[in-house]
Amino acid sequence: MRLTDEEKAMRDGRDGAAVAKAMDLLVRYGEALGAEALVETRNVCGTVSATTPFLRDFALQKGGLDAVFSEFNLDSQDVVATPKVKAFSSHLQLGFDPHHPKEMGVSEEIVQFYKRSEAAAAKMGVQILNTCTPYQVGNVPTRGEHLAWMESSAVVYANSALGARTNTEGRESTSCAMLTCRIPDWGFHRDEGRRGTLGVHMDIPVESVEDWGLFGYWMGDWVQERVPVITGVGQVPNLPKLKHFGAAASSSGGVEMYHLVGVTPEANTAQQAFGGNRAGETRHYGARERAATLERINANGTDRKVDYVMLGCPHYTIEQIWEAAQLLEGRKVHADSALWIFTPRAIKEIANRNGYTQIIEAAGGKLMTDSCSAMSRAVPPGTQVVALDSAKQAHYLPAILGLQAWFGTTAQCIDAACTGQWNAA
Amino acid sequence: MNTATSTERAAAAAETIVIRGRCVVPGMAEGEALVTTQPISGWGGVDPRNGTVIETRHELRGLSFAGKVLVFPGAKGSSGWSAQFHVARLMGTAPAAWLFNQMTTKVALGTVVSHAPAMTDFDRDPLTLIRTGDWVKVDADNGVVTITRRFERG
What CATH number matches the domain at A298-419, 3.40.50.11480, 3.40.50.300, 3.40.50.620, 3.30.499.10? Predict the structure, then answer.
C-alpha cells in the first residue's frame, strides 16, 4: 500500500506508540482488502467502551483500560497509553443501558466499571452519543463526506440516504481511524464501488414502516453485499422507514448501499445510479414476496402468549416515540407482559419534555437508552416469546437468546403488550 | 500382502489437490475443513465462547469452527464481525485458517484480528473443491492451498 509522508511518520512513531499501532493495523487491514492507499476521514463512529465481565476481567489481569483499548481497539498485544482522538468521533450503542442496570440484570460492579470506561472515552474526546443512529443526534454527514462508521444500519443509511462514503468498519478499524484520521480507500469510498449492479422493481406500494422492513429483509436476502437500484417507488419514505429498510437489508444480507431512484442523492435516474454498469438481473417485489417474507420472519413464532415487547431497533425517532405514546395513552401493559422502548439519550430528553416518557411509564412500559435487547442479551425475566416491530431485531433475537419472535406493526406490538397476546395474523 | 494393499488403497484415496490464491493474512496453518456455501454472520451469528455457528437458519448451526479451516463464501450481517472473531482468538475458539471468495471489510478486518492465515481470489473455487472433513494446508505466505481428501470407503 502507498503511504503519504504524514502516514509514514505516524506509522514510525512520531505521534506516539498508540498512533503507530493504529497505523500498523490500518496497513495490515488495507493490504488484506487489496486497497492501494488510505483516505482521510474526520468523522468516525465506533465503540471504545467496556461493558462486559469478560472485558472487566481482561482489564484486571492485563493492565486496566489501556490494556482493553490496546487489545480490542488497536489489535496490539503491547499495552500502550490511550491518547486523545484526532477525528470527530461518536460513540455507538452499548452492551446495556447504564440507567436501567437492574432491569437488564447487570451488577452494580459492572455499572461502576462501565462508568470508568465512559469517563475514559469522554476524556479521549469521543462524543457519548451511545446510539446505533448517530445521524439522529448531531452527526448528519454531508454528501461525499468520507466516514469511518461501524454499525451496519448506520452505514447503509449514511451511504444511501445521505450520500456520504463509508464501508462497514469494525471496532478495531474505527478506533484506529479516530487516532489517525485515516481508513483504507476501498469499496464505498470510491465512485466505482457505489454504482448499482442489479435491479429491484416494486410491483406493490411500499408505504408503512412495516412495509419497508419487509421489503428490506426480502431484498437483503437476495442481493447480499451487492448494490441494488430500486425503481417503482411511490410514496417518498421518511427517516424511520429508511432506517428500518436499511437495518433489515443489512441483517438478512450485507447491503451497505442501495439507490432509490428519484429519492436518494446518487440516483436522480436509474442511469445515474448504474453509472455505466449493466443490471446483472432485475427482480420484482410483489404481494407474493411480501407474504413469504412475513411468514419467514415469523417462522419460529408458535406460542401466542407474548411475554415481552421491544421497540426501538434501530433506536426510535421522536416521531416513533410520539406514535407509541399515542397508542399507549390510557392503556396498561398486561401484568404478564413487559414493554421496553429504546432511543438515544438526547431523544429521551425530548420525550421527557413532551410528556411521552410519563405516558409510557404510566402504562407500565419503560423508555430506555444506550442499548437494546440484542446488544445487551437482556430481556425481562422468564421471557420466552417476544413481539417486535423491527425485522432486524426479529432476525437476531431468536438466534442470540433462543426466543420465539413475532414481527408486526408498532400498533400490533403495543396491542400485544397490553393484551399479553399476539393477535395479528 | 494385506498391509501393502491397504497402503496403496490409502494412497489412492489420499488424492491431493493444489489451488492458488491471494494472501489476505500471512502465515501457515493446517486442519480439517469446515465448508459452507452460506455467508457467515459474526455478531448474532456465532458464539465465540464455544466457537459455534448460532444463526437460526444457517446450515452450520450448532457446528464448531474452532481449529478448523473455514471455507465459506464471505461475511454478512452486523459490523460486530471482527469483534466476535477477535474474542474467539482470545478464547481459543477461532478457525485455524480462512478461505473465502467474496472480499468485504468485515471479513478483511475479522481475519486480520484473528491472526490466522487467510486467503481469497483463488484460481479454482474452494467451495466446490473442498469438502467438510478434508485435510487442508494453508500457506498464505506463498498463496498455496493443499487439499487432501478424507478417506472414504467405497
Answer: 3.30.499.10
